[in-house]
Amino acid sequence: MAKSDSSNLAREEQKLAFKLLIPAFLILVIIALYPLGQVFYTSFTDRTFATARETQFVGLDNYRSLLSVTMRELPAVIDEDTGEQVVDENTGERVYERPIQVLPREPRYRSVYQFNLFGNRYVLGARTPDFIRAVVNTLLFTIFSVFFETILGLGIALVVNSEFKGRGVMRAVMLVPWAVITVVSARMWQWMFQPTRAGLFNMIGTRLGLIDSSYSFLTNTSLQLPSIIAVDVWKTTPFMALLILAGLQLIPNELYEAAEVDGASKFKQFMTITLPLLKPSLAVALIFRTLDALRVFDVFQVMLSQRRYSMASYNYFQLISARRMGLASAIGVIIFIIIFAFAILYMRALGVDTE
Amino acid sequence: MSKNKYKLLKKVLFYFVLAIIIIYLLFPFYWALNSSLKTEAQLSMTPATFIPRDPNTGEISIYTNNYLAIFQDGQFVRGLYNSAIVATSTTILALITGSFAAFALGKLRFKGKTPALYTILAMTMFPQVTVLAGLYAVITALNLGARISMIVTYLLFTLPFTTWVLTAFFRDLPKEIMQSAQVDGATAFQTFHMILLPLTAPALVTTGLLSFIQAWNEYLFALTFTSIDVEARTVPVAIQYFSGALARQEPFGEIMAAAVVVTIPIVVLVLIFQKRIVAGLTAGAVKG
């Protein structure tokens, strides 16, 4: 009797759960099912935007052209007289054959990166080097920006969580960067990054005597990524901080009081109480932040446009400027797969409990 | 004596850190404010000045016409109105559907939780650009207006986020609360909206604020879906269409003025709701 009661209860619970999930899944079906299905389908065709040309089914061609990479050794250029490798007189660097000499031509591969390994020089070639670079850019961007955002966000949340006058105002101040419209904040930073002293950073740099000539943060290839990361860290740290702050609120004060009585140091309290109890909220914040960073678009589009791509801004370029819808969809699917892999890795690593 | 000194030192250090945080968070915003009060000529001064100054005399000279210009621009004011409607509706929809789903996923026992959570998360794994064409087709097929289109499509990023965050919070609430409510004869749904929901107030406010801001700032969908219906343009799109009095260059001062004006409602919103972020639990049963 008691057993059938409890199984009844379980069935009731299951029924209620499904009912509660209906609205969310209904919305999902309406706004996600068709668009996503279409993306998968289009990725196997050569569909182009706004042309009269018939769309053809091309199988995996789009994926092949995006993902084909090859690595070749670059032979040294040998001086015929001395039999030694030619050294550039101006730079003092050893001279190697140009990548175009060694990379396959049909289909055409272009150089992505060159690097030295065990005294040999290699070239990494790809059929769509811009896409491979976009993937690398996005991964670097994600790793660094999420790392800094988490550290800063945690720090800010801990400070704002302590008792002091004006913490209410501080909570609003904390969210200001996140509240500034992304497209506009990118323009604002672009203005601050200006390559003359009309830009904030060059003005401060010169005033403090740190730099003698003006830096052009957004055209210098070694400064582009750090600049973009700085912008994103400023913009999105509040997101992390607020989620972490809400998580901190869930930790009962009694635990700290008890630890205080036991004479545990603040650091020990942080390691044994705060961090473990914060883990679920931190994990969710990290997952969403990482997924968002991997899809980064606005900052790259506004600040670097076609000088340097993220995966999503390359997708945009192929769709809107090049009108290659098939290829653009394939890019979308590849991004999806990369993000999915990241999500699973994350949940494993953080031990996110889904059941 | 030394203990007092130690306390004082700690306090000074704390406020020092606090000050650095505030400067870091607010300085770029101050720079936008500063730029919004400058004329074209003042903006291109080298070196740039920390307060608007006259290019010739160096006297402080504040220029407010950028603000007048944006408020005389009907597009911008209408944009504010549209943004408010769209962001509020999306947030409310996301919170309702999201908290239902999160209660099921976080507190009820049923089979298929993991696939459900992953499916919801998978919605946010495509860049917005990728689904743009497909979404546009759906919207045209359903014949939705521009505002409704934005409200519904913004759920694509607000719903997974609210569902996941709220699920984590529901899961953290002690089982005893639900059990004792059931002993008292409350149905599971009553337990949900009368007991659990008030307890998750901090999470509701937090996710609500973050979703609202995300919707308020969204650009790409808004640009696409309002391309035909100019009246429905939201603020980010309206700002991009600023043409400026001198048509030869973009009106940077006005853009910055708009950035400042558009941020204010959010700050006010946070100020109104910020107490709730904390109050929810301290007033609740867990602290007891």
From TrEMBL, chain A:
ABC transmembrane type-1 domain mapped to chain residues: 135-346
Superkingdom of source: Bacteria
GO term, biological process aspect, one: transmembrane transport
GO cellular component: plasma membrane
InterPro entries named in the record: MetI-like, MetI-like_sf
UniProt KW keywords: Cell membrane, Membrane, Transmembrane, Transmembrane helix, Transport
A Pfam family: BPD_transp_1
Topology relative to the membrane: Multi-pass membrane protein
Chief localization: membrane
Location of this chain's protein in the cell: Cell membrane
Database matches in PROSITE patterns: ABC_TM1 (PS50928)
Signal peptide: none
Sequence intervals crossing the membrane: 20-41, 139-160, 172-193, 325-347
Similarity-based family: Belongs to the binding-protein-dependent transport system permease family.
Name of this protein: Sugar ABC transporter permease
Species of the source: Halanaerobium polyolivorans
TrEMBL record, chain B:
Spans traversing the lipid bilayer: 12-33, 84-105, 117-139, 151-170, 191-213, 255-273
GO cellular component, one term: plasma membrane
Main location: membrane
Compartments reported by the entry: Cell membrane
Pfam families in the cross-refs: BPD_transp_1
SUPFAM superfamilies on file: MetI-like (SSF161098)
Domain ABC transmembrane type-1: from-to ranges: 80-273
InterPro entries: BP-dep_ABC_trans_perm (IPR050901), MetI-like (IPR000515), MetI-like_sf (IPR035906)
Family that this chain belongs to: Belongs to the binding-protein-dependent transport system permease family.
Name assigned to this protein: Carbohydrate ABC transporter permease
Organism: Halanaerobium polyolivorans
